[in-house]
């Protein structure tokens, strides 16, 4: 079932002011991102309190460590230089897990998790247990409720455990740009008003499943978790930029300034150039919040420039087209009456400024000759004509003298 996350009721909007500092977690709550940037390559997840892993004895080759590469090639992703590498080599049915700290809401509220996943090997197919990233609610103790399961053909949104009737629906295929070695941005939205869990990949359309959290579970206390127990679940995957937002709040990006604000209700982010992203935090917006650019047309000259911020194209004779390109927008030079007041000039309609560039020309934008006064300068006075005639005479005399000089020189040399 396709659902527009934006359209989901915002009735449960809740700002849990002052709550952010109470949780001892590197994911700040109710909004914030765990970037893993503070870790050194090779650091174990257990060094990032309150995150922790569980690897049931006997010892099994299960590790969760910080990394800076994808499939062995050092790289970065939108400024991110660290992430977690989960290596589960499936040494039998033992607990291979890692967890975030608990997210504790002061009241029941909808929430959104956003995180990036990169599968470094194809997960198991068939009936084997699949690796999954799930949300657990506190049911004394915590238990699985819903999440994303990774299979040999793609990823599914799933409901399991105390989350309600077990269910699974395809989210994306294991093929570029969501294949092995590709970063995939996952969004998981839990709506207690409508008892739905929804997920989307790379900002695409979302899929949803009904939920029915066990009455014994606490809707206000949950956490993020990797599940690698069971047999046949060998996997290797990367996890980055894990964020959580509690309440119907999100990031508000103001395209006129490039300023982004966290924890904003949709109703407070409705400006013409503002974009609201449910459950998102500014730090993990992709693309990041920047001042909008577009085509800037100078309506006088007809010159057009691409990629210009709106603030740099606000002249009275300029037109800015958000997201537009000069190839696509009409940017013609204005025309007008061109009066050349030279004694032999005159007025011509429909000329651009560039076409009316002579030293004795005057351009009247948008005007017609019938509307403008175009008086020609008078023919030069007799005195001026006299000077011209004198100059011409001097030239003639000079040429005659030069010519006779040449003839004299030729006679001498003969
Ligand atoms: Ca990171
Ligand atoms: Ca395992």
Task: Tell me what you see in this structure.
The chain is mostly beta strands. It has 1 helix and 28 strands. β12 and β13 form a beta hairpin. The structure holds calcium ion (CA) (2 copies). One calcium ion (CA) binds at residues 35-37, 80, 82-83, 240-241.
Q: In the residues, how many domains can be counted?
A: 3
CATH architectural label of the largest domain: Sandwich
- What distance separates the N and C termini? 110 Å
**Overall pLDDT confidence:** 85
CATH topology of the largest domain: Jelly Rolls
Bound molecules: calcium ion
Q: Outline, from the CA principal axes?
A: elongated
Q: In which range does the helix fraction lie? A: under 10%
**CATH class label of the largest domain:** Mainly Beta
Which regions are unreliable across 5 or more consecutive residues at pLDDT < 50? 1-24
What percentage of the residues does DSSP assign to strands (E)? Answer: 35-45%
**Strands, total number:** 28
Biggest sheet features: 9 strands, antiparallel
Structural class: mainly beta
């Amino acid at each position: 079932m396709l659902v527009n996350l934006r359209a989901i009721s915002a009735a449960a909007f809740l700002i849990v002011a002052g709550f952010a500092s109470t949780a001892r977690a590197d994911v700040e709550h109710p909004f914030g991102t765990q970037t893993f940037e503070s870790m050194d390559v090779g650091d174990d997840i257990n060094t990032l309190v309150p995150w922790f892993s569980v690897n049931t004895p006997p010892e099994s080759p299960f590790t969760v460590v910080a990394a800076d590469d994808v499939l062995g090639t050092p790289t970065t992703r939108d400024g991110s230089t660290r992430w977690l590498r989960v290596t589960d080599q499936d040494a039998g049915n033992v607990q291979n897990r890692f967890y975030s700290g608990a997210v504790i809401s002061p009241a029941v509220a909808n929430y959104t998790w956003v995180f990036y996943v990169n599968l470094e090997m194809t997960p198991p197919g068939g009936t084997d247990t699949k690796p999954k990233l799930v949300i657990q609610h506190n049911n004394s103790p915590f238990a699985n409720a819903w999440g994303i399961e990774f299979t040999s053909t793609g990823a599914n949104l799933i409901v399991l455990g105390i989350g309600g009737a077990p269910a699974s629906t395809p989210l994306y295929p294991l093929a570029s740009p969501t294949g092995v070695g590709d970063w995939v941005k996952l969004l998981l939205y839990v709506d207690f008003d409508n008892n739905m869990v929804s997920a989307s990949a790379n900002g695409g359309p979302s899929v949803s499943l009904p939920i029915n959290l066990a009455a014994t579970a606490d809707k206000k206390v949950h956490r993020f978790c990797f599940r690698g127990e069971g047999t046949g679940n060998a996997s290797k995957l990367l996890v980055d930029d894990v964020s959580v937002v509690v309440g119907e709040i999100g990031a508000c990006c103001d395209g006129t300034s490039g300023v982004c604000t966290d924890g904003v209700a949709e109703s407070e982010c409705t400006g013409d150039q503002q974009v609201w992203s449910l459950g998102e935090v500014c730090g993990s917006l992709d693309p990041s919040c920047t001042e909008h650019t577009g085509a800037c047309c100078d309506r006088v000259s007809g010159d057009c420039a691409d990629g210009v911020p709106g603030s740099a194209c606000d002249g009275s004779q300029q037109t800015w087209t958000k997201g537009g390109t000069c190839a696509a927008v009409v940017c013609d030079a204005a025309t007008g009456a061109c009066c050349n007041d030279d004694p032999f000039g005159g007025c011509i309609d429909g000329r651009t400024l560039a076409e009316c560039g002579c030293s004795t020309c005057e351009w009247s934008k948008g005007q017609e000759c019938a509307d403008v006064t175009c008086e020609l300068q008078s023919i030069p006075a007799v005195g001026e004509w006299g000077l011209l005639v004198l100059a011409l005479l001097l030239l003639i005399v000079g040429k005659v003298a030069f010519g006779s000089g040449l003839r004299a020189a030729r006679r001498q040399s003969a």
